[in-house]
Design brief:
The chain is of the alpha+beta class and 149 residues long. It has helices at residues 7-20, 60-67, 100-106, and strands spanning 23-29, 35-41, 44-45, 51-56, 70-78, 85-97, 124-137, 145-148. The chain has a single domain, classed as Electron Transport, Fmn-binding Protein, Chain A (Pnp Oxidase, Chain A). Strands 1, 2, 3, 4, 5, 6, 7 and 8 form an eight-stranded antiparallel beta sheet that branches.
Length: 149
């Protein structure tokens, strides 16, 4: 990988990683100040790198975000050679949304097993993460590449 990547190049490489790996780790901070990672499936990664997740309104992560909205989302991918790794973090500010317009925008019928009330289920909430920065290491490189938003 060439060291001559622009910030836009790095953002595109990051998008490729995130879209290739829909399962990532959302890391919140607990009331005790402990980083708490958990696997999450992404709902959407928008053009401006705003990231969306669906969750239960009563979940621990929602409580964490209510206390500390700064979060990290982490992806990794093993290279084809099975020896190298690409990994990236998106840093951002999270907010919890429950309005019906967001529910209708993202609703998927396969979520009925989690939210039997459909898009109007009172337990369904969305986590919207507005990015502040991203970092990534490409294909086993030592260098950490950072892009601010």
């Amino acid at each position: 990988m060439t060291a001559e990547l622009t910030p836009e190049d790095i953002k595109l490489k990051f998008r490729e990683l995130a879209e290739a790996q829909p399962l990532c780790d959302l890391i919140t901070v607990s009331e005790a100040g402990i980083a708490v990672p958990r696997p999450m499936g992404t709902v959407a990664l928008e053009e401006d790198y705003t990231l969306w997740f669906v969750t239960y309104l009563s979940s621990r992560k929602v409580a964490h975000i209510g206390e500390e909205p700064r979060v990290t989302v982490y992806w990794e991918q093993r290279g084809a050679d099975m020896e190298t790794w690409t990994y990236g973090q998106l840093y951002g500010t999270a907010e919890i949304l429950t309005d019906q317009a967001v529910r209708d925008r993202f609703w998927k019928d396969e979520w009925t097993r989690y939210f039997p009330g459909g898009s109007e289920d009172p337990e369904m909430a969305f986590i919207k993460i507005t990015p502040t920065a991203l970092e990534m290491t490409l294909g086993g490189e030592q260098a950490m590449r950072t892009v601010e938003f």
